[in-house]
């Protein structure tokens, strides 16, 4: 009986010790957890969220608008010259809207330019479109040769320059082929195109003969 009591007291003491050790361990763990500093969140830098503004560039559209404005403020003659250049360069018919797109001249918005083009001798206007009007209506080398053959007295090269784009290349080619003559006019120093035709040669020889007869006339020379 005394032994049993001793055992009971021993067990109770063991339980108390176990309970005490558990409390000590729990307190120790909680104190360590409290003492361990948590890493502070890194504050976002205010400079990271601010984007560097892109450098301001002069807009191409602004340049284009300034260019258009300078063209439309130019004198009427300068604007007409710009349009006529486009017509002869392309050899196409343009509406006023197409002219505006091609060279920025506002034909509909400028009455003086419109009337100047409509009355210009180098421009044809059919009521809707403007086109170039050459002095001679030829479009290729064959038609050029036909025209020159019709002009026994010769035709000025300057009158052929605006006929079609390659006319100034075709004239030397026709001369090299022996189909025409290109001679200089003594009065104006301009080239004249003649057909290489026996009828022209005969007339030319007779003209030279008349000049020589005039020079050899006794009344034209002083003694």
Features:
223 residues, mainly alpha, 3-stranded antiparallel beta sheet, two-stranded antiparallel ribbon, 5 strands
* DSSP E strands, number: 5
> Radius of gyration, rounded?
51 Å
What class would the helix/strand composition place it in? Answer: mainly alpha
The helix/strand series, from N terminus to C terminus, equals HHHHHEEHEHEEH
The strand order across the widest sheet is 3-5-4
Globally, the shape reads: rod-shaped
Mean pLDDT: 78
Largest sheet: 3 strands, antiparallel
Strand content: 5-15%
Count of helix runs? 8
What oligomeric state best describes the polypeptide chains here?
single chain
Low-confidence stretches: 45-50
Distance between the termini: 189 Å
Helix content: 40-55%
Notes on the structure:
By secondary structure, the protein is mainly alpha-helical. Helices cover 53% and strands 8% of the residues. The protein has 8 helices and 5 strands. The longest helix is centred in the N-terminal third of the chain and has 34 residues. It starts with a helix and ends in a 7-residue tail after the last helix.
């Amino acid at each position: 009986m005394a032994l049993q009591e001793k055992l009971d007291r021993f067990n109770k003491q063991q339980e108390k010790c176990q309970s005490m050790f558990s409390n000590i361990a729990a307190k120790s763990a909680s104190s360590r957890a409290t003492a361990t500093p948590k890493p502070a969140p890194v504050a976002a830098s205010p400079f990271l969220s601010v984007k560097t503004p892109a450098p301001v560039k002069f807009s191409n559209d602004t340049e284009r608008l300034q260019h258009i404005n300078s063209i439309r403020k130019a004198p009427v003659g300068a604007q007409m010259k710009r349009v006529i250049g486009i017509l002869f360069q392309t050899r196409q018919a343009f509406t006023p809207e197409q002219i505006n797109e091609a060279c920025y001249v506002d034909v509909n918005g400028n009455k003086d330019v419109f009337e100047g083009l409509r009355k210009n001798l180098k421009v044809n206007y059919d009521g809707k479109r403007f086109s170039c009007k050459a002095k001679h209506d030829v479009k290729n080398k064959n038609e050029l040769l036909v025209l020159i053959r019709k002009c026994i007295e010769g035709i000025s090269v300057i009158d052929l320059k605006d006929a079609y784009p390659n006319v100034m290349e075709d004239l030397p080619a026709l001369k090299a082929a022996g189909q025409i003559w290109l001679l200089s006019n003594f009065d104006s120093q301009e080239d004249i195109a003649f057909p290489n035709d026996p009828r022209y040669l005969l007339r030319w020889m007779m003209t030279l003969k008349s000049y020589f007869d005039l020079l050899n006339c006794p009344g034209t020379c002083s003694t």
